[in-house]
Amino acid sequence: MINLKNLRMKYYDNGTEIEALKLKKISIEDGKHVAFIGSSGCGKTTLFNLISGMITPTEGTVEVNDVDLTTLTEVERDLFRANHIGYIFQDFNLFPDFTALQNVLLPMSFSKRYSKKEMNELAKDILKKVGMGEKINQKVKTLSGGEKQRVAIARSIVNKPDVILADEPTGNLDYKNGAKIMELIKEIAKEEKATLIVITHNNSQLDMFDEVINIEELNEVIK
After folding, report:
1. Which candidate, 218, 193, 167, places its Cα nearest to that of 26?
2. Largest Cα–Cα separation, the chain
3. Are 111 and 160 in contact (CB under 8 A)?
4. Phi and psi of 22, rounded to 5°?
5. How many CA atoms lie within 13 A of 191 on its CB side?
6. Whether the predicted pLDDT of 163 surpasses 60
7. What's the rounded Cα separation, in Å, for the pair 221 and 219?
């Protein structure tokens, strides 16, 4: 279960206080597939960063699996994210000079769950699952956009997260590849029984989700 309550995010720009986000409550049940929509700048990615523990709010609570991330240290949040949350970035966020396998191995090393042998076996299995089994030793910079996104998906799910966050995962892909990637993400989330939250501007994909949340309508600050 994900519970976001009484959230406020403020920052300062040249000494001026700016309130970027103000939300009363969002609750998402375990295993649900939810789409976040809203215009650019309304706070969707900020919410993802809060749910993942990358940042903490100025005020409010962020509960994931009954753990209030705002009470954890930065190191504790990093470990929680490694073990419980998979993050798929729009721009892939991969290391271009690393191979597909090396990129997938990175989050496994942070989680401290597996031996080196187990890590290699699991990473290879996950890459095969997303259709990249024949390119595990190929450097990411030589892959196509669709292939890079598949590697990014493999990296996000290799630790079997409870929550998968996908920030416009098809934004850099053409329609055909985008549809395939979205279907793959949903299929994997269903298999893993993970909660899936996707930021999307693609209205044609909205009927694929259990719930659609318009952040712009909930945000009391940004209209």
Report:
1. 218
2. 53
3. no
4. -150, 105
5. 12
6. yes
7. 6
Measure the CA–CA gap between 170 and 11, rounded to whole angstroms: 30
pLDDT tens for each residue of 103-151: 999 988 887 788 889 999 999 999 999 999 999 999 999 999 999 999 9
Does the pTM surpass 0.85? The reply is yes
Question: What domains lie within the chain, and their CATH numbers?
Answer: 2-95+144-218 (3.40.50.300)
Contact 44, 99 (CB under 8 A): no
Residue reference for tokens 């215009």: 39
Distance CA(27)–CA(3), nearest Å, equals: 5
Strands lying side by side in the sheet with 211-214: 85-88, 163-167, 195-199, 33-37, 211-214
